[in-house]
Amino acid sequence: MVREDRSPRQHLPGLLLVCVVALLLAATAAGPAVAEPSLFVSGASKDANTILAGESVNVTATVHNTGDSGGAMTIEYRVNGTTRATERVVVDADSSVERTRALEFDTPGTYSIKVKSPGTSAGRVTVKPAIVETTRMDSTTRQLRIHGGTVPTDEPYEMNVSGPTNRSFAVQSWTVNASQQAFTQDVTEYTDPSAADIPVPSGDDASVFGVVTVGSSDGVEPASMEFALNRSTLQSAGIAASDVRVYHRVNGSWRAAETAVVAEQPDRVVYEADTEGASAYAIGRIEPSFTVTRTSVVSEQATDGHRVSVRGTVENAGSAPGTYDAQMLVDGEVVNQTSVTVPAETEQTVTLSTVMTTPGQFQIGFNDVDAGEVQITEGQLQTDEDGGAEPGTDPTGTEPAVQTEPAGDGDGVGLGPLPATIMGISTILVIGGLLGALLLFGVVIALLRRGGSRNDSGFEL
Fold it and tell me: pLDDT-derived band of residue 117, with 50, 70 and 90 as boundaries?
């Protein structure tokens, strides 16, 4: 056997062929791997951090494909680990797409949002029953807009009002009664009461430190509010912290609402007050202003003496209703008293009386007003034989007296206008005797007529 030796140039074509085949095999093996898509969620975001109950937040997911061919994947929108929605996303090779999904929240709370596959966080969202925003503020006025969501409860809920703490008067929280309907309220706070668009009480009988007006929509009513007053403001007005009240404006009158101190701070006092059923509130102290405008005295006969009455007209010129304590005085001594409620800017007439049993001249007063004098004589106090008071002189006063009829005699029995006795004989006995005589006379007449009829029948003509 003869061995044939070859040069390197003779082996080169074979080597090249082997390399080409190897490259082709490698390309064939690597080709499917390079052509596969590679999809993943590269980012997630939301368009709001705080929303109202019943509203939606928009969550945006970015899906990226780093492969050389297009592909698709399913992404999940998760809230606190629970899948709320899924979506199939198709992405071209070496590109990315965005998808946005609205997620609705009905219950107040804080929720974590993720877009999964793999999981990428979109952050947290806070769901509130209502949101308070300041729409305007200057040195004397602050306007608040309250947006309420669809809250799944009939219970009142409270909204905190953030803002500066250097105002002399400031609302700190607002509580409303809602009926599961979305609403919007405009609340305006006035630290200068004269800047309010409603008439505010002023003068010696009113110290108002702030005013709140409310525009309510259907389905919601204010329930209570919490507010703060500077101690320096109270001290300047000379009013104790416990004397401050919230007053509702109802039909032009200011009525005090239940108000309580809930916190004592070094520079401020915090109050809570009922705000149901009105649209304007004054904060401070509003008192009635009473004046006795007219008085009169009337005297009249009475079965047990002589009755004297004093009548006084009390006017309340203040902006709040109040209770007036009226007293009747005789020579400076209180003999009768009562209390009466007088509405704001109205008047009320009060009448008090007493029975006088001794003669004399008496000074009659209505509280601190001298109402007049009354002269009572012995004759006005005497009683006749029937037990009634004998008429005396006309009663004094600015109004005529009302005379009463004398009472009947308690020792005899009267018959209407007839006297009890006739010539010392009982009227009943006299009348009985007359009736008996008439009866006897009638019987005699009847007998006579009967006897005459019999005589006529016994004769013939």
Answer: confident
* pLDDT value of residue 433: 67
Summarised one tens digit per residue, pLDDT across range 209-255 is 999 998 876 667 778 999 999 999 999 999 999 999 999 888 778 99
| Tens of pLDDT, residues 348-383 | 999 999 999 899 999 999 999 999 999 988 887 765
Give the per-residue SS3 of the chain.
Answer: CCCCCCCHHHHHHHHHHHHHHHHHHHHHHHHHHHHCCCEEEEEEEECCCEEECCCEEEEEEEEEECCCCCEEEEEEEEECCEEEEEEEEEECCCEEEEEEEEEECCCCEEEEEEEECCCEEEEEEEEECEEEEEEEECCCEEEEEEEECCCCCCCCEEEECCCCCCCCEEEEEEEEEECCCCEEEEEEEECCHHHCCCCCCCCCCEEEEEEEEEECCCCEEEEEEEEEEEHHHHHHHCCCHHHCEEEEEECCEEEEECEEEEEECCCEEEEEEECCCCCEEEEEEECCCEEEEEEEEEEEEECCEEEEEEEEEEEECCCCCEEEEEEEEECCEEEEEEEEEECCCEEEEEEEEEEECCCEEEEEEECCEEEEEEEECHHHHCECCCCCECCCCCCCECCCCCCCCCCCCCCCCCECCECCEECCEEHHHHHHHHHHHHHHHHHHHHHHHHHHHHHHHCCCC
Which pairs with CB-CB distance under 8 Å and at least 24 residues apart come from 108-112?
108/53, 108/151, 111/79, 111/80, 112/79, 112/80, 112/81
Does residue 22 contact residue 100 with C-beta atoms inside 8 Å?
A: no
313-323 average pLDDT score: 92
Tens of pLDDT, residue by residue over 23-43, are 555 545 544 445 689 999 999
- Of 303, 270, 292, 307, which is closest to residue 350 (Cα–Cα)? 292
Structure tokens belonging to residue 51: 């929303």
Report the pLDDT value the prediction gives residue 18, as an integer from 0 to 100: 55
